[in-house]
Design a protein that fits this description.
The protein is mainly alpha-helical and about 525 residues long. Strands 3-2-7 form a three-stranded antiparallel beta sheet. A two-stranded antiparallel sheet has the order 1-4. The longest helix has 22 residues. The chain is globular.
Length: about 525
């Protein structure tokens, strides 16, 4: 099957589609990757005395509950179930036995991440299952497993064929609303996203989400595995409102399951806070971080790592205020923008223009996080907060006050025999802390990539030991002269954390920065 066949699935099988309900700061502390799920493996053939309608039992020695360790952003392999028939002859028994053995070998290699070794076993499971019948219900699962393996190996063409065939088998045997469609629809959607075909991926993921909610409820937790790639697809297509609404729904799922004050909300709050920061919704992000901080500070269930995550998020929101200007207060739908001429708050009177303020509240949040991190036995959180505080001093034009924080962080950052200043160390190169994009580069950022033509320019410059920029030159690019001049002026005002050598900051020449400029296609 090819992309044309997949388009047919998208266009012709949307009867189950529903409307979604209304509803980058990188924080690594306490992050736990979601694992893939492993259902029960094939059961051994039932004895000849067992009636054909009696389900076979799963041997206790099989790893039925062992989860896969693969990320939730990649397809989950779904094992083939045991055929619900009694063996009719020796050939069939041997086929089922060989299939079950091949499946166990596949599962062992797949769960260990050895996808090249898993592939021949997955292929063999599919071949043997097909011998039981071209429309056998277990064949769809075997093809899903095969597609998952091919996807992880980067063979998107082969994965597409496996997933399309699995979808058609389920549709023909169980109907277009079967929950058995969720896994292959998700897998095919991820396959299209992996090859950059987001316009094909999004309808498939939307359909899988609709089927999940129809069969398992509007707030079932399993749909989180669909929401993450769907949000990525929306963003790639420039459907930012859909992305925002869908991402916010993840918190509603957790609130429905646990209530609004349960500590189990912490992962959902952290994820939403990161999304809001990444999408530029700083006021909303700060509210989420404040809520996370309060929840993680509960005396009955204190979570110091979550407190640090929240406090760093609060500080980051103030840093973004400084970078982008104070975010305007959100207005009610339909409210006209009639600023009071006597209103002096730039966030309420846009006539005053952007207002850049590095609020001390952000530094206060980091100092509070520092106090918490200093009490933890593991020092990785302490190192991260120390770097944040050092960066804050550079932003505030206090380079001399940044040094104590960063020099204290240096020995804590060495996670390997290499020092933090080595080629792979976190202080081995300049890091941009502040850059205000020129107005020309902001144009048409809300348009889908397919609707615009992109030009670029590359600036080369020196980052001083104080984190400032000098000697800017435009060395490459096809952007206009106006765009090149705008980039040169903007990068000259940027602020960096400098490179460190032997515990001291040093100047770094020939640092490069690339900026893109968009124009609408004619």
């Amino acid at each position: 099957m090819t992309s044309a066949a997949a388009r047919g699935i998208i266009a012709g099988r949307m009867r189950s589609r529903t409307t979604l309900p209304a509803l980058a700061l990188a924080l690594v502390l306490g992050a736990t990757p979601a694992g893939g799920r492993a259902d029960e493996p094939p059961a051994a053939p039932a004895p000849t005395t067992t009636p054909a309608t009696t389900p076979a039992t799963t041997p206790a020695t099989t790893p039925a509950t062992t989860p896969a360790t693969t990320p939730a952003t990649t397809p989950t392999a779904t094992p083939a179930a045991a055929p619900s028939i009694a063996p009719e002859d020796d050939t069939r028994r041997r086929t089922v036995a060989e299939r079950d053995g091949s499946y166990l070998a596949f599962r062992q290699e797949f769960d260990a991440g050895r996808y090249t070794d898993a592939l021949p076993h997955a292929e063999r499971v599919a071949e043997l299952t097909e011998l039981l019948g071209a429309q056998h219900p277990d064949l769809a699962r075997a093809l899903n497993n095969l597609g998952a393996t091919q996807y992880r190996l980067g063979d998107f063409g082969a994965a597409e064929k496996s997933y399309v065939r699995a979808i058609r088998i389920v549709e023909e045997t169980q109907g277009s609303l079967s929950p058995r469609l969720i896994a292959p629809l998700r897998g095919l959607g991820l396959t299209f996203e992996g090859s950059g075909r987001h316009e094909l991926a999004v309808p498939l993921l939307e359909r899988a989400l609709a089927i999940s909610r129809r069969n398992r409820g509007l707030f079932n937790p399993e749909q989180r595995d669909l929401i993450e790639p769907l949000v990525e697809g929306y963003v790639a297509l420039g459907r930012y409102r859909d992305a925002d609404r869908t991402q916010r729904y993840t918190l509603a799922i957790s609130e429905h399951a646990y209530g609004e004050k349960d500590p189990r909300l912490i992962p959902a709050l952290r994820e939403l806070g990161q999304w809001l920061e990444r999408s530029g919704q700083r006021n909303a992000a700060r509210e989420v971080w404040e809520r996370l901080k309060a929840l993680a500070s509960d005396r009955a269930h204190p979570d110091p790592i979550a407190q640090i995550v929240a406090l760093r998020g609060i500080a980051a929101s103030y840093r973004y205020d400084y970078q982008f200007g104070t975010e305007p207060v959100e207005r009610r739908p339909g409210e006209l923008l009639m600023p009071d001429p006597f209103e002096m708050d730039p966030s309420r009177n846009p006539m005053l223009g952007p207002h850049y303020l590095l609020s001390s509240a952000g530094e206060d949040a980091l100092n509070e996080a520092l106090q918490i991190a200093e009490k933890l036995p593991a020092k990785n959180a302490l190192a991260v907060v120390l770097v944040d505080l050092g960066d804050w001093q550079y932003l505030a034009n206090r380079a001399d006050k940044a040094l104590p924080y960063l020099r204290r962080a240096l020995p804590l950052l060495a996670a390997s025999p290499d020092s933090a200043e080595s080629d792979s160390g976190p202080l081995s190169r300049p890091v941009q802390l502040l850059y205000r994009q020129p107005e020309l580069a902001e144009r048409y950022r809300d348009q889908a990539p397919a609707a615009v033509t992109e030009k670029y320019a590359i600036a080369e410059f020196t980052v001083t030991a104080e984190g400032r920029v000098r000697d800017v030159q435009i060395v490459e690019g096809d952007a206009s002269d106006g765009a090149r001049g705008a980039l040169s002026a903007a990068i000259a005002r940027a602020i960096y954390r400098p490179r460190f050598v032997d515990g001291l900051p040093v100047a770094t020449p020939k640092v490069r920065f690339r900026e893109s400029f968009r124009q609408m296609k004619s």
